[in-house]
Amino acid sequence: MKFTGTDSYVATDDLKMAVNAAVTLERPLLIKGEPGTGKTMLAIEVAKALQRPLVQWHIKSTSKAQQGLYEYDAVSRLRDSQLGDDRVHDIRNYIVRGPLWEAFESESPAVVLIDEIDKADIEFPNDLLRELDRMEFYVYETQQLVKARHRPTIIITSNNEKELPDAFLRRCFFHYIRFPDKDTMQSIVDVHFPGLKRTLLREALEAFFEIREVPGLKKKPSTSELLDWLKLLVAEDIPPEALRAEDSHKIIPPLHGALLKNEQDVHLFERLVFMSRRAR
Amino acid sequence: MLTEFFFKLREGGVPASLKEYLMLMEAMRAHVASASVDDFYHLARVTLVKNEAHYDRFDRVFAAYFNGIESLPDALFTEIPAEWLKRMAELNLSDEEKRQIEALGGWEKLMETLKKRLEEQRGRHQGGSKWIGTAGTSPFGAYGFNPEGVRIGQEGSRNRRAVKVWDRREFRNLDDTVELGTRNIKVALKRLRRFAREGAAEELDMDDTIRSTARNAGYLDIKMVPERHNAVKVLLFLDIGGSMEDHVRVCEELFSAARTEFKHLEYFYFHNCVYESVWKDSRRRNSERTPLMDVLHKYGHDYKLVFVGDATMSPYEIAYPGGSIEHHNEEAGAVWMQRLLQTYPKAAWLNPVPEERWRYYESIGMIGKLMEGRMFALTLEGLEGAMRSLVR
Predict the structure, then answer these.
(1) Residue A248, SS3?
(2) What is the ipTM of this complex?
(3) How far is CA A251 from the centre of its chain?
């Protein structure tokens, strides 16, 4: 079964290729890209399109690789032993399964999302090499080998905050989601707002890409911000004319707070607009 | 054939490994990609390139390697700018007019000139030579007479999009980014992290508690440990004033990132080269100076030494006593540099001057030699190299 995007997710050709390679060869796929380009959504949409169960593992700075496999809840066992609970004799009662274990045990091949792997410690990816390669791991407490029934499709996202080790990279397919061009953006918006007025969309996209062009912005607005902004525009029923820069004296696009999330950026933007208005 | 491509990639600076190459073979065998070059391009990139900074290199190698395989005429003609096509249209005339052209020196010659013109006009990096090479063997002149050959304003050709993908070189900006923000710097500096537990015990040590409790026949025996924090110690020497004025912004960013990243950070300023004293406050650089000997004695060998400076000065300022432009120095800058380097074996010099200009300054070479080659450009790439050499 090939992944070709879904009715709520627009995938470019190279992204489709990346997903299909990962699904076919049962190897992990590493996704990088600007924030807000739909990295996390990809796994959710792939699971939906291929009708596979989705297991999500969101990484934090304190996450350990072991947590993805299983955890031995020693504290509960300690408490139970002090209280004289019978469960204490079977160590299996205190083994808590992690997301990878769940995925390995799944009846049908699962899709695993390892979100923002770069948030974790530098050694984190190295600790998962064997697990991702062989799709098996050993539970020391119960002397049990957990092996994947079906090799899951693993989608890993990274925001590039840390470099990932070479050995890890070599085991993955890699794809960098570029910021979409105008055509792709149009189809993305079409997918999310099917009934949007053509004129409004055109004007909004113009304004959006113009804002992205403003030099010196700390955080350029991304796809997800555009979608939020459109939602607001629709909700407020803003007419397309209000977005056109040339004719009105209200040059600053309405509700631009949805696009620019940084106070300095808003100031910079307003100053630039002010200057260009004076120059006219 | 693909083995050759693989080696070309490695030559071109894409660090693909054998494992990845085999993965590509496996994917080909599993028919992940159809026969089109487009698909192959995407598949090869997704398997062989693991860093978006290398996309551009990959594109270049791919373009150079696969251009012969592309069905050429289409690609050629869609690459020609519209106004040239218009001229082609003018050239694609009736038999009678062709005869006239023949008389003017021959079609072939005209095409040849046209092609030369094209090259001059476009100035495409490597593309130019390719067209010539292929045209030499292909009957380029013959196209002119063949109406099929001259597709004017042809849109949506099979190859057009594909050719453009790698020829547009959209990832050029991602290659070896020079842009250094505070956040980028912090991320690079994180390489230096080495966590250690020091100070008051205030965190529950779960593992030890369990172990001790077990040993204690099940009676709780709580163990505490101190909190983990970055124990790396850094001694930062910043060149200030003079030619460093051009690099103030990037140095400020580096400094502010370093300040938040390291708990043990000591910094001093110097001008051009270090001599017997340095200072901590630029406004009072003349009244409050710290003798370098004190620095050497105060901070232990485990400090990592980082210089930030452009190292552009007169060679005298490094090599001779009295060479300093600001005062009379009893001992040469090189002597002081060596003392520092002997005390702190882990050292690196970060230079904001772009690396390709280093060879024009003798002093940069001299400092580089003193540093035993541990001079790095103040770019993200250089910073990472420096951090790597510091932890080695």
Answers:
(1) coil
(2) 0.76
(3) 34
